[in-house]
User: Fold these one by one.
Assistant:
Number 1:
Amino acid sequence: MDSVMMPRRLALVGAECSGKTTLATALARELPAHYVPEVLREFVDSTGRSPTKHEQHMIMAGQINAERVAYQQAAISGVPWVCADPCPLMTAVYSIEYFNDESLLPPAVRHQQTYDLTLWCDVDLPWVPDGAQRDGPQRRLSVDRVIAAVVADFDLSVVRVHGGPDERLCAALAAVDAMRTY
């Protein structure tokens, strides 16, 4: 009997304007992977505003559901990876940063454990404003510090990528290749 190869899960974390989408779309082409876009970005684009504290749960649930659908599609079509840009952990991080609310952290950390690989995009890229979703380089540094605290507090396994888009893609692909050896 032929066995079906289930897709692997790749998560991206990083503050706003840290190159997550650029890296995710490049990985989707190279691996290949089903790309899961950011539900938060779709929310902001459709409403013209940032979510409230009480809408964060809906954003995270939407991101998890979008990943679930992409995973099913990848499994059916034989695509080896699903790439979440970003993963739901970022919704919990934003809830901490913007609302001082840690209530989404436990389910986000549990969900984080379903990924085969997590890439953390450094904040070393130039700041690029992007409409209603961007708060500025100072907020980006603050969010990066929250990510660092969550990664340390929960001993999450991440691969930090930095440099320009090509350097990040090379580092990400090297991390994927390292996984293939076990």
Number 2:
Amino acid sequence: MRKSSVLIVLLESEGTGGAHFRRLSAPPQIRRSDFLAMFEGVPASHAFARVLFTTRRRYFQLWVQFGVRPAPVGLLREANRILATLQISAS
């Protein structure tokens, strides 16, 4: 990854552990509090955020990796702009 790169991964999860999943009615957004100190497989020089959320009775893990740590404000804003276009159906 380049320093200006952002990788967005959305995984659907089983409905287990629902207490850890944020209930959302709008597309997810990355907040500074979503960044983890470390995540297996992600280089220490990369910022990594994870959001566990539920919507429409479905459960998801959103992973966002930035090519540099900390995530630049402009790239974080751009990632959230892209995430704002996410549409999830009930089935």
Number 3:
Amino acid sequence: MKGDMVVAPNQEEAEKILKSLKPALVKEWKMTEFDDLVTSKDENSLLRGMQAFMKANCHQCHAVAGKGVNLGPDLCNVFERYKGKKLLQQILEPSSEINPKYLNHRLFLNDGRTITGVIDKEANNEYHVITNLLTPTSITRIPKKQVEEKTVSKISPMPVRMINTLTKPEITDLISFLEAGYKFPDHLNHPKSGLEK
């Protein structure tokens, strides 16, 4: 089972409790509001960054410190490609540059249907399409002879506005955390820190 469990006297109360557990919208952040972005290697900043990672629900598609799922690109070495504002842009504007492995394709079929998703594998006579990254083992197989046209989407499958539940300091800590590549001092990898491997 995945999700939150609450105990309430009725469905209406349960829905109120669940709604209160969701992070509130802080602001619709824009890149121009981060001209002064300065990241840190301070241990407290990295720990707060991991908390921000969880708060923004990044762990639903990305693994971190051995926790979470791998529905999106591996972020352990993201710092090798992106840092600072460029890294932030990948989060605020995910369609600005899309990892080729996670490009969405639209397949227009000769029966009038349109299938949209990430092509996981292209065999000799069919496409294996993941239509929902939240269920990556659910593969739709489309025979190539049924495909009239295949186009690439310029829209990232990563949802926009993921970090709008974070404050500006939390976003700065998040970027610091991602730049660290999850490499923490040994004492932070201790089981009591919650960052054990």
Number 4:
Amino acid sequence: MERKRAVVAVIEKDGKVVLGKKIQNSQGTLRGEWHIPGETVEDSETDEQAIKRGMMEEMGINVDVVGFVASHTTPKGTEVNWYLCKTDEEELIIGSDLEDARWIMLGEVSTVAGELGQSLWPKEIQALFEKM
């Protein structure tokens, strides 16, 4: 059986990053927490296709993948690839497993994002927010 894969999109625009808040009673580790949005990669998808689909489903925005930042494996064995992304869009339309989504100033991401989510950030992502 192939290992489960996921992608995370650090979407930056005008000094802000998109964070989503998972519905409290949803399935998954980050329920009720503000987090950097991600998506499970479906069978035949590339990472870029999964990001574009996922961000449209969850945030209602089109994104462009700028580049790969980091990778890590979750405690459950999911391979997660992190990408820096851009968008020209500002309005966020929340999807089915989010209760809210908003643009957060880069310097405030680490104070708004939940502790559990941050504990899963690879060191390259932590460094990215420290220098942004």
